[in-house]
């Protein structure tokens, strides 16, 4: 019973806190796991900075490795820069929520090894630079901590990702 009361009190506390998304001049870091297209489960970390109350710019890196049958091991790394428009002002969304969409310019490196030797699985055409779009949302439990989910993006976690956010 005490655990239920404590949990209910904790949820109520989160509900009344004045959590707020990143504004102009503020920064946040994001980290978590990604969902890729058969490339393992990437981890990612990123940084966003508010240049306007509705616009952020940032950077992100992601990494994963996967062992396949037949002694083939793949390693993937992605790094990119992004810009996002946050729809809170436009649609009058409460600031505990952060709904956004934007674009990413990223470099992704794909490499494979077969029995310990380099193996060119894609014929030399897999690594490179490209643009992609993303859409996502965050929910802030407090002024500093939140959770995030995003779909799309330009790094190897572009199938989607979920994680935590810490706002400075």
From TrEMBL:
Keyword Signal: yes
Sequence ranges assigned to domain Outer membrane protein beta-barrel in this UniProt record: 6-157
Record key words, sorted: Signal
A Pfam family hit: OMP_b-brl
Signal peptide interval: 1-19
InterPro entries named among the record's database cross-references: Beta-barrel_OMP, OMP/PagP_B-barrel
Keyword Signal: yes
Taxonomy, superkingdom: Bacteria
UniProt protein name: Outer membrane protein with beta-barrel domain
Lineage start: Bacteria, Pseudomonadati, Bacteroidota, Flavobacteriia, Flavobacteriales
């Amino acid at each position: 019973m005490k655990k239920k009361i404590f949990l209910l009190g904790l949820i109520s506390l989160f509900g009344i806190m004045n959590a707020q998304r990143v504004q102009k001049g503020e920064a946040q870091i994001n980290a978590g796991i990604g969902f890729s297209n058969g490339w393992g489960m990437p981890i990612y970390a990123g940084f966003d900075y508010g240049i306007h109350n509705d616009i952020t710019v940032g950077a992100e890196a992601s990494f994963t490795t996967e062992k396949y049958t037949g002694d083939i091991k793949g390693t993937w790394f992605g790094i990119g820069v992004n810009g996002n428009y946050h729809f809170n002002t436009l649609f009058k969304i409460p600031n505990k929520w952060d709904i956004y969409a934007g674009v990413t310019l990223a470099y992704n490196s794909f490499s494979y090894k077969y029995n310990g030797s380099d193996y060119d699985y894609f014929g030399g055409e897999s690594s490179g630079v490209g643009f992609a779009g993303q859409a996502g949302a965050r929910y802030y439990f407090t002024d500093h901590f939140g959770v995030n989910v995003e779909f799309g993006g330009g790094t190897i976690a572009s199938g989607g990702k979920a994680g935590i956010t810490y706002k400075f």
